[in-house]
Write a sequence for this structure.
């Protein structure tokens, strides 16, 4: 049945059949929400009022096919649905592009907290789906942003998300490695954010198949100690940041001291670590000292 209607009792019985095949109830309910158009709260209502009619956004057979594909191949549901809720946004995602993580939402919150008036010029290194660039552009409508990635596929996905958010004219997408595409604007960035690959190679090799086998290794594997990209970002910030410019980075849960040491050794000021919602140190911030320059076009 396409766009067909059934009642809560029928849907819950069908849900039990699908979960008997395996998988997590939470994941299945997420699929019902994002692909089926049945929000979690409505799902809970059906448990109290099984007689209520249910209108789904797609056929039960389509939902079942997605669920079976997820169980058989470990392909993330976000790729199968093509969307991922993130902060107050809905981000389009596709294979070859890192799925936005909930903890990365806190990197945006840190940027808003540490630069409350908004920077004139900012950059997002390793933008992936463009989720952070979109969030920052929406938060600072008078700012100008640059979003860099070495993956053409990621940049295509970021372009879709920026256009859907109505900010494509305020964020310039650039292909290349870290700071290299930003060379015309070096010394002008008042804020730079990055969620780079930081998982040590040996740890990446042991990740669950849904991540290791389906998400892009280039966005996850940070080298032997996980710090390859972080070293490049820290080193390049000296030339790229405006005096007083802020650098914010996400890192692995056990890399806080190593990243703080990198920033301190490179001459940054106000070097700080920041915890996630569970208190684990997952982020680092630092400022580049000195006197400033204006943001302008080249």
């Amino acid at each position: 049945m396409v766009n067909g209607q059934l009642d809560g009792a029928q849907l819950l019985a069908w849900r039990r059949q699908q979960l008997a095949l395996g998988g997590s109830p939470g994941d299945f309910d997420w699929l019902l929400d994002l692909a089926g158009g049945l929000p979690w709260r409505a799902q809970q209502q059906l448990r109290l009022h099984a007689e209520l009619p249910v209108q789904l956004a797609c056929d039960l057979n389509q939902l079942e096919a997605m669920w079976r594909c997820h169980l058989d191949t470990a392909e993330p549901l976000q790729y199968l649905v093509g969307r991922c809720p993130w902060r107050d946004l809905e981000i389009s995602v596709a294979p070859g592009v890192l799925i936005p993580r909930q903890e990365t939402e806190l990197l945006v919150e840190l940027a808003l907290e540490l630069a409350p008036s908004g920077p004139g010029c900012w950059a997002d290194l390793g933008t992936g789906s463009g989720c952070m660039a979109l969030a920052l552009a929406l938060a600072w409508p008078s700012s100008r942003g640059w979003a860099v990635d070495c993956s053409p596929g990621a940049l295509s996905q970021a372009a879709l998300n920026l256009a859907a958010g109505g900010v494509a004219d305020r964020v310039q997408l650039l292909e290349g490695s870290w700071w290299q595409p930003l060379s015309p604007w070096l010394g002008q960035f008042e804020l730079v954010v990055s969620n780079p690959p930081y998982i040590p190679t040996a740890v990446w090799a042991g990740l669950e198949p849904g991540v290791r086998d389906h998400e892009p290794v280039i966005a996850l594997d940070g080298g032997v100690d996980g710090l390859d990209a972080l070293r490049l970002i820290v080193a390049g910030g000296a030339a790229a940041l405006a005096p007083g410019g802020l650098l914010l980075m996400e890192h692995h849960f056990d890399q806080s001291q190593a990243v703080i040491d990198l920033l301190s050794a490179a001459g940054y000021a106000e070097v700080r670590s920041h915890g996630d919602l569970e208190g684990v140190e997952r982020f680092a911030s630092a400022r580049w000292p000195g006197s400033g320059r204006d943001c302008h076009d080249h």
